[in-house]
Amino acid sequence: MHRLRNPRWRFAAVLVTAAVLAATLVGASQVGARGDTTTNPVAAASIEHTAAAEPSLFAGVEQHGAALGSPDAPVTLVEYADLQCPYCAQWARDALPTLVEDYVKPGTLRIVFSGLAFIGPDSDKALRTALAAGRQNHLWDVVHGLYARQGHENAGWVTDALVVGIAAAVPGLDGELLLEKGMGSSVELEIARAANAAQAAGVSSTPSFQVGPTGGRLDLVRVDSLGPGGIVPAIQAVLAR
Questions:
Q1: Spatial separation of the C-alpha atoms in residues 64 and 54, rounded to whole Å
Q2: Does 26 have pLDDT greater than 90?
Q3: What beta strand segments (E) does 32-147 contain?
Q4: pLDDT tens column, 88-112
Q5: What is the crossing angle of helices 86-94 and 41-53, to 10°?
Q6: Where are the beta strands (DSSP E) in the chain?
Q7: What is the rounded CA–CA span in Å between residue 40 and residue 152?
Q8: Is the pLDDT of residue 161 over 50?
Q9: How far apart are CA 5 and CA 23, in angstroms?
């Protein structure tokens, strides 16, 4: 079981003004046990395999903007993630498929992606692409595709060609349009709101999670595993209320 000993990334400040709809998150620490910030190639290969083996992970599941699952689900899980974070990719590989099958598809859970972009330029471009896809209710398909192809941090891996290729695998998505819409002011506003929400929630690492009744108070959950066992107890606790 993979334990999170220290926060992967810490936030130093979030500055939002009326003139500039943006947020700045400064990463200042690394996991104590790691001496580098590159993606584990074995994990990346496994994610790629998962993406190929489970092309219908979200088939038949409602998507509304950044939300996955029925809006009437009794429990809401908010995921704070940076699309360059290797631990976020690990959670998407190890925990998300179980949550989708056991909780989202039966209508028990909705998951909201709250994207952050503080690791670097590739984080920003990846997030903008995902949010633009959310305008067409395909954010989760694009997020899954980005994690499956996650490269070394800030190596320029989020290319236009990559975006177009990911979009091509999703019926109805136009990669060139995603690149264009990702630069819009509405996307910038959404990025700023997510950064402010993360600061208000006390988020200090990615991935981080809030869980609670839909429409009610969401509490920050401290997970000790990136597998389903790290988050399922919190979901069950809300259902038992």
A1: 21
A2: no
A3: 63-64, 67-68, 75-82, 109-116
A4: 999 999 999 999 999 999 999 999 9
A5: 40
A6: 63-64, 67-68, 75-82, 109-116, 208-213, 219-221
A7: 9
A8: yes
A9: 27
Task: DSSP letter for 47, please.
Answer: H
What radius of gyration do the chain's Cα atoms show? 17
C-alpha to C-alpha distance for 169 and 216, rounded to whole angstroms: 36
| Tokens, residue 179 | 């690149």
The whole-model pTM stands at: 0.79
Cα 142–39–233 angle (5° rounding)? 70
**Residue closest to 44 by CA, chosen among 98, 104, 86, 105:** 86
- The length of the chain is 241
Q: How far apart are CA 69 and CA 3, in angstroms?
A: 28
Q: Is 57 exposed, middle or buried (CB count within 10 Å of its CB: 0-12, 13-18, 19+)?
A: middle
Query: How many Cβ atoms are within 10 Å of 231's Cβ, its own excluded?
Result: 25
Q: What is the 3-state secondary structure (H, E, C) of 16-69?
A: CCCCCCCCCCCCCCCCCCCCCCCCCHHHHHHHHHHHHHCCCCCCCCCEECCEEC
Categorise residue 7: left if φ over 0, alpha if ψ from -120 to 50, beta otherwise. beta
Asked if 90 contacts 125 with a C-beta cutoff of 8 angstroms, the reply is: no
Question: Per the structure block, which two tokens stand in for 182?
Answer: 């990702």
Distance CA 151, CA 107 (A): 33
Tokens of 152: 């070394």
pLDDT at 29 over 50: no
Query: Is residue 136 scored above 50 in pLDDT?
Result: yes
**What's the DSSP call for residue 104?**
I
Q: Which amino acid is at 37?
A: T
Going by the DSSP 8-state scheme, the letter that residue 65 receives in this structure is T
